[in-house]
Design a protein that fits this description.
Pfam families: Peptidase_S66, Peptidase_S66C
Strand content: 15-25%
Distance between the termini: 11 Å
Radius of gyration: 18 Å
CATH topology of the largest domain: Glucose Oxidase, domain 1
Family: Belongs to the peptidase S66 family.
Oligomer: single chain
Protein name: LD-carboxypeptidase
CATH architecture of the largest domain: 3-Layer(bba) Sandwich
InterPro entries: Carboxypeptidase_A_C_sf, Class_I_gatase-like, LdcA_N, Peptidase_S66_N, Peptidase_S66C, S66_fam
Keywords: Carboxypeptidase, Hydrolase, Protease, Serine protease
Helix content: 25-40%
Order of helices and strands: EHEHEHEHEHEEHEHEHEEEE
Length: 301
């Protein structure tokens, strides 16, 4: 797996949206944060554009991404928000220049399509991290500081408290994954996740309990857990129980889907759609340990 060059002060970075529309006030706040890191933000044509719920037409969003990918002065591309839209354009994007001069693509949620496209098709790492739209809930230092450290190549390691559903063990491997529903929807596409021999990360927001179960069982039937080396479970938030109740918590639903396997499982990592969204290097080599004292994992860069 190829990791793009880490950022340096005074690098130019792009800010765009291949998905939903984002309010300008959050964009301007994100620009200030990036400038405080001594980066030079360049706003894409999708910033301020709108067509329905998306940041402009498919044509505009595709071309904005293409221009940022091809511009050799742009060293990283920050998604402004998630929502919906990447799946409509991803198969039209030409990655031929990017392949030989890769750069960091940063985001989460709908960006899961992009992350897994980059890892699966181009063997290139990317960054799961906070976005401008998250600033609606305020500035969270843990989220942005972890992203800064990851992008500038500083040591990235995390620890979590024990969780009753954890399964102990150790594992090393490249990290892949993202939002569960999008991983499921990407099956059979060019952006399908390749989890064989990898450590997988999963998170989700705003789903019914039965639907979360259906996504995970679909991934299981597709063999996505068969050769996984370890599982890190992020935030499962704003879930709505069924009527009558499904009978399991979101965490129990995840554990039930992988209970027959023997890889280590770690619950409780603060990444995903919650208030704190710590950065992850997707495609990066991660070392995972889950024991009675809790979970630790670190990236080798």
């Amino acid at each position: 797996m190829i990791l793009p060059p880490f950022l340096k002060p005074h690098d130019k970075v792009g800010l765009l949206s291949t998905s939903s529309f984002t309010e300008d006030s959050y964009i301007q706040e994100a620009v200030k944060i990036l400038e405080s890191w001594k980066l030079k933000p360049v706003l894409g044509k999708t910033i301020g554009a709108r067509q329905g719920s998306m940041a402009g037409s498919d044509k505009l969003r595709k071309q904005d991404l293409q221009d940022m990918l091809d511009d050799e002065e742009i060293k990283a591309i920050f998604q402004a928000t998630g929502g919906y839209g990447i799946v409509r354009i991803i198969d039209q994007v030409d990655f031929s220049k990017f392949k030989y001069k890769p750069k960091w693509v940063v985001g989460y949620s709908d960006t899961t399509f992009m992350h897994n496209h980059l890892q699966g098709r181009l063997s290139t790492g990317s960054m799961h991290g906070t976005m401008a739209a998250d600033l609606e809930a305020g500035y969270h230092a843990q989220s942005w500081e972890s992203l800064r450290k990851a992008l500038f190549g500083e040591k990235l390691e995390y620890s979590m408290q024990p969780h009753p559903l954890n399964r102990t063990g150790t594992a090393s491997g490249m990290l892949v994954g993202g939002t569960i529903s999008i991983l499921c929807n990407a099956k059979g596409t060019m952006s399908e996740v390749n989890s064989n021999g990898k450590i997988m990360f999963l998170e989700e927001v705003g789903e019914k309990h039965f639907r979360l179960d259906s996504y995970l069982i679909s991934l299981k039937h597709a063999g996505k857990f068969d050769y996984v080396r370890g599982l890190i479970v992020g935030q499962l938030i704003e879930m709505e129980d069924d009527d009558p109740p499904f009978g399991k918590t979101p965490e129990e639903i995840v554990f039930d889907a992988v209970k027959e396997f023997d890889f280590p499982v770690a619950f409780g990592f603060k990444a995903g759609h919650g208030a704190v969204n710590k950065a992850l290097i997707l495609g990066g080599l991660v070392h995972l340990r889950v024991d009675a004292q809790g979970t630790t994992f670190s990236f080798e860069t």
